[in-house]
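Quick review question:
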């Protein structure tokens, strides 16, 4: 079975100066684009669907949505 879902025309961008690496965004990301490894935030943009859930949970406003460079709007699961 081949499944595709639409993604946003946006992608999450991190401001490392504001990020306190609390891990809340990693816990909130349902696409596993963010995870904590050895106490540090690891962000894999290729897994980001641009939903904005990480933006909504970030208390330091270190994450924002920016226009996706390659306007691909479908991802395969």
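Suggested answer, residue by residue:
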């Amino acid at each position: 079975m081949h499944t595709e879902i639409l993604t946003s025309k946006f992608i999450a961008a991190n401001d490392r100066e504001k990020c306190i690496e609390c891990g809340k965004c990693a816990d909130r990301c349902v696409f596993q684009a963010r995870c904590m490894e050895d106490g540090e935030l690891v962000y894999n943009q290729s897994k980001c669907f641009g939903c904005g859930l990480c933006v909504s949970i970030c208390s330091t406003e270190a994450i924002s949505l920016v226009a996706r460079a390659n306007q691909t709007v479908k991802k395969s699961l």
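Why it works: Strands lie at 4-6, 10-14, 34-37, 40-43, 63-67, 74-76. The radius of gyration is 13 Å.
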